[in-house]
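User: Teach me something about this protein's shape.
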Amino acid sequence: MADIQLSKYHVSKDIGFLLEPLQDVLPDYFEPWNRLAKSLPDLVASHKFRDAVKEMPLLDSSKLAGYRQKRLAHLQLVLITSGYLWQEGEGGAVQRLPECVAKPLWNVSNDLGLKPVLTYGDVCLTNCKVKNGDIEVMYNLPGGAGTEWFLKVCGIVELTLGKGAQSVQNILDGAKANDKAKLTSGLTELTTVIGNMQTSLAKMNDNLTPEHFYNVLRPFLGGFGGPASPISGGLIYEGVSDAPVKMIGGSAAQSSAMQLLDNLLGVTHSPDKQAFLDEISNYMIPAHKQLLVDLTKMPRKVPQVVAEAKDANLSKAYTGCVAALTQYRTYHIQVVTKYIVTASKSDAPKSLAYKDTGRSDLIPFLKEVRDDTEKMQK
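Assistant: First, the predicted structure itself:
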């Protein structure tokens, strides 16, 4: 098997899974998309967004040039879809998406290998632009500063991992070459990176309340199809097919970061948990999903190299890295409890966000995944 080089998977050694800098808007031909995506929060607030979408012309997506333009177009079109579906809240959701949005979204999605629904890859990885070492959110969902802060912090966490991408590459190279020194330094550096990711995630508390996330932002991240969804029968993409389509909602579970760290460090999960993680990976950027697959096919995995080396420094570095990942997952459980589980109890009639991802047992699931990680320290 050839060396795994992160750059081959749309992963930057400077910003990780975030998309490299790109333009904020599409060419003039696509100005209707630019305008609607930018004005989404205001038009939703004034209940005028659906009318504006219905007036939008059907544009030819084949005029998009290159990968980055298509990623930006996908972002704009799924934002427009989200605003259209959820303008009146979960109780006023519609079941059909107009052809002027549905057809180009479907085509762009097929071109990119993405799902025709809002995903983490859109609102974070494409939408968060690195500028002067910080994250700038290009397009916003309804909710003003609180919503923008949520999106920005997601980008900050991804950027924190991205700054440690070279340590990931060093671990891969060190394991393949059986270079104990390179592997030890890579693991030591990655331990610091994971700790920094936890510090970055903690910023969520600075400017986002559980009530805002759950009641204002969460509905716009919703999927469609299934008993927990307000659009239980699925969504019809007009001009594409009369058969309704079911998709899970946007979720941080669709970030490749945690599965990358699992696969890199050799953390394994039970078949049922892995099946869910595999399903989630279908909503990732295809190149990122392929990286996860290729990591599982490494002939010499990191735990094996560490065990065979019988080197105290290397073993300590590996154990410390796994401990940092365990601690991160413990903190993540606290965040999910605060922003989803506790917040949902005051809003019982509405569907729980985590049911959109097919997990009604979210906290037990996260604890089991955390415990699987902790076992690797022994």
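Now, about its shape. Residues 312-345 form the longest helix (34 residues). The longest strand covers residues 128-131. If you'd like, I can walk through any region in more detail.
User: That's plenty for now, thanks!
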